[in-house]
Automatic annotation (TrEMBL):
Taxonomic classification: Bacteria, Bacillati, Actinomycetota, Actinomycetes, Kitasatosporales
Domain HTH tetR-type: 11-71
Binding region for DNA: 34-53
Entry protein name: TetR/AcrR family transcriptional regulator
Cross-referenced InterPro entries: Homeodomain-like_sf (IPR009057), HTH-type_TetR-like_transc_reg (IPR050109), HTH_TetR (IPR001647), Tet_transcr_reg_TetR-rel_C_sf (IPR036271), TetR_C (IPR011075)
Amino acid sequence: MTTARRSKITPEREQEFFDAVLDELREQGYEALTMEGVAARASCGKSTLYRQWQTKPRLVAAALRSARRDRSLVAVDTGSLAGDLREAARITAGTSGRDTRLTQALGHAVLDDEELQGALREALVEPELAALGAMVDRAVERGEIPADHPAVEFLAAQLLGVLRISPLLHGRHADADYLVRFVDACVLPALGPTPAP
């Protein structure tokens, strides 16, 4: 595999390319995204993109990885699991439209391309999993829930799943009010006392 050369592109310019890729993805979807479209949006020649990343999948994967930053969920610590999850719901609502559009834009391509799948997980999924895991760990330390509570395994699936399905069910992205009500009505009751076997 050829090593990409990046010496002539500043980090700021590289980020402009990545932002253009992500915007094109959200608007056009993966299949319709082209190097020409990204180049036009980023005001560069497509030869620049090919020289640095060689292929569309590599460019998209690099852009996805660039989107990974310390997410604001990491700083959430209200002193209780209920408070943490409600605050996480409010924060997540602020990015749900952009993140959900990005996930949906990758569609089947992310299932067929391991590099894209890994980049998407790194950019959007793993930071949230780590933050939720930290919330649960603190709750266990405080004695709010047992470490082996069976609902903990499904916490991320509940929260991330409702974000993805909301546009389909309701025709709009989940807002803060909806997500907090979901936490109160569905997530917190599931994390109540461990049910008897």
